[in-house]
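Hi there,

I know you've been waiting on this one. I reran it after we fixed the sequence typo, so this is the corrected version. Both the input and the resulting structure follow.
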Amino acid sequence: MPHIGFGELIVILVIALIVFGPGKLPSVGGAIGKAFSEFRKASKELTGEAAASTATNEPVPIQAASVPVQAAVTQETNEVKS
């Protein structure tokens, strides 16, 4: 993803000034800022909900899960050798 340099930023600001005009530009900038802050707040809320939902689930103990897996691997190894 390309980065926006100083020159590109100036071009974007000049185009925005031409399109919106000097009177509307501050209100457009404020609206964009509010939209970004709402997006950030919503993403933090979603991340918090995901973390809370995974925190309530109890993890499977590693020892209990590894015994059947080890037996299955041993069985598959024996079948390949035969």
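Quick highlight: The mean pLDDT is 79.

Best,
R. S.
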